[in-house]
Design the sequence.
């Protein structure tokens, strides 16, 4: 198990590496990390309102994580966010919200940006589209949101197999790749906000799904029996 320094919730204004902090910091006002080298799993707890909430990240490269971990403090010395570059992408590990309204607004803005990333992928498909699926999943700790395109040719293959009456309306029967945004950032943003994470997640997916339905469909070459299907999977 790799030992990491704690990150204090209050410090001096600026951006700091984890090795900039002393091991002697008061542990009552910190974010503590545990890294499992064998499984590349990172566990830490964050302040959410008056409580603490556990966070877990998987497939975290050790060297990259240690080298790129950063803590950002505002002019009052309050911790605003923690980031690290994982697999070449900046990853949000913690964000501080000023209020419930601030959290909702920042989640809303992120949800729209995330939906735009997925829309761009959807609109790259030039084939006739029979189905556009939005699949999502949430069990509080793990969350997933992605799109799946079903072309007319793929749907005909599904129909000919005749698995069951409505087999054409299940994304798992199509061979298309998932079209995803930034699930890691989505998880962090909804879990750092007060309220139950699953409710915060549903707030985000409602915004993303409505945005995709409004802006992705207009540019697609759709069949007459096209369906837009948004559903939770288990």
Sequence:
């Amino acid at each position: 198990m790799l030992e990491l320094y704690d990150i204090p919730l209050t410090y001096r204004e600026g951006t700091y590496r984890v090795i900039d902090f002393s091991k002697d910091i008061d542990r009552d006002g910190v974010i503590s990390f545990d890294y499992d080298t064998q499984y590349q799993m990172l566990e830490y707890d964050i302040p959410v309102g008056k409580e603490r909430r556990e966070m877990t990240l998987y497939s975290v490269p050790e060297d990259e994580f240690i080298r790129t971990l950063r803590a950002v403090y505002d002019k009052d010395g309050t911790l605003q966010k923690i980031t690290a570059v994982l697999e070449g992408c900046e990853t949000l590990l913690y964000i501080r919200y000023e209020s419930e309204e601030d959290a909702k607004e920042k989640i809303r803005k992120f949800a729209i940006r995330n939906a735009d990333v997925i829309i761009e992928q959807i609109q790259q498909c030039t084939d006739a589209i029979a189905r556009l699926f939005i699949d999502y999943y949430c069990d509080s700790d793990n969350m997933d949101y992605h799109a799946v395109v079903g072309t007319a040719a793929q749907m005909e293959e599904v129909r000919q197999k005749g698995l069951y009456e409505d087999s054409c309306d299940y994304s798992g029967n199509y061979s298309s790749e998932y079209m995803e945004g930034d699930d890691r950032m989505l998880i962090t943003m909804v879990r750092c906000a007060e309220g139950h994470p699953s409710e915060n997640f549903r707030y985000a997916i409602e915004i993303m799904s409505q945005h995709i339905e409004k802006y992705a469909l207009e540019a697609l070459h759709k069949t007459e029996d096209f369906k837009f299907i948004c559903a939770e999977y288990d």
